[in-house]
């Protein structure tokens, strides 16, 4: 593992400003961690960082991506910390397999590569965080806790890369691939979630009831949902209405 960076103010993602991400939760069951890296010395150093925290426990180790998948099959784990460059299966390939095998599993990438391509591939594969080995002593513990809160954790350079990528797409007029719904479908979704009838929605949006029904059917199909209740829950998660 590279020499640790001298302690200093961390600019890594800290999504919960009311509590320090480094503060150790009390009276909590330890987070069970699978650690995968093809260098035993690196694993030993990372394990020292994690095991000194009362709420974190490395319960399994692997020397490559294939071993990591096998370990996940045989061991109850909550979080996988994977290196990217490993034999047999890379950390990226292992991430795709792991999230398919155990949908509730969180995955962090721990790598020496400050590389935008790897970053985007990791997020696409299903990783919820990207931590550099050079600052593992500063960021890794906070990243593990953020992952278990279902919050993303990226080093400052990664955040900059994401913002730059988004602005480039907007500048070139590219459609955001994550935008599933059209503006009209979002309007219909919000009104459905607010409890309006099809007739009321048609009057508010100046469209026919038949068109409202078509938009509603499209919403259910696109989102893989089944009824108004599920549409309402989705609208709350999307921030379209207040819970």
From TrEMBL:
Domain HTH luxR-type per the UniProt entry, residue ranges: 174-239
Annotated TM spans: none
Domain Response regulatory: 32-148
InterPro entries on file: CheY-like_superfamily, NreC/VraR/RcsB-like_REC, Sig_transdc_resp-reg_C-effctor, Sig_transdc_resp-reg_receiver, Tscrpt_reg_LuxR_C, WalR-like
Alphabetical keyword list: DNA-binding, Phosphoprotein, Transcription, Transcription regulation
Region ranges (Disordered): 1-23
Pfam families for this protein: GerE, Response_reg
Protein name: LuxR family transcriptional regulator
Organism, scientific name: Streptomyces rapamycinicus (strain ATCC 29253 / DSM 41530 / NRRL 5491 / AYB-994)
């Amino acid at each position: 593992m590279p020499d640790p960076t001298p302690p200093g103010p961390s600019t890594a993602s800290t999504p919960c400003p009311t509590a320090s991400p480094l503060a150790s939760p009390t009276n909590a069951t330890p987070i069970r961690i699978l650690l995968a890296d093809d260098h035993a010395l690196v694993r030993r150093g990372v394990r020292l960082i994690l095991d000194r925290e009362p709420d974190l426990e490395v319960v399994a180790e692997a020397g490559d991506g294939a071993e990591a998948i096998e370990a996940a099959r045989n061991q109850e784990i909550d979080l996988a910390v994977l290196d990217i460059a490993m034999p047999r299966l890379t950390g990226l390939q292992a991430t795709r397999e792991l999230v398919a095998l155990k949908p509730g599993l969180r995955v962090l990438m721990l790598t020496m590569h400050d590389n935008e391509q790897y970053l985007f591939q990791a997020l696409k594969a299903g990783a919820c965080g990207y931590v550099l080995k050079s600052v593992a002593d500063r960021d890794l513990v906070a990243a593990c806790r953020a992952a278990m809160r279902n919050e993303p954790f990226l080093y400052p350079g990664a955040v900059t890369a994401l913002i730059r990528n988004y602005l480039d797409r907007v500048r070139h007029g590219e459609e955001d691939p994550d935008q599933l719904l059209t503006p009209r479908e979002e309007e219909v979704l919000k009104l459905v979630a607010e409890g309006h009838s099809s007739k009321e929605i048609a009057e508010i949006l100046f469209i026919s009831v038949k068109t409202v029904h078509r938009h509603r059917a499209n919403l259910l199909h696109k989102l893989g949902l089944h009824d108004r209740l599920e549409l309402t829950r989705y609208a709350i998660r999307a921030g379209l209405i207040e819970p």
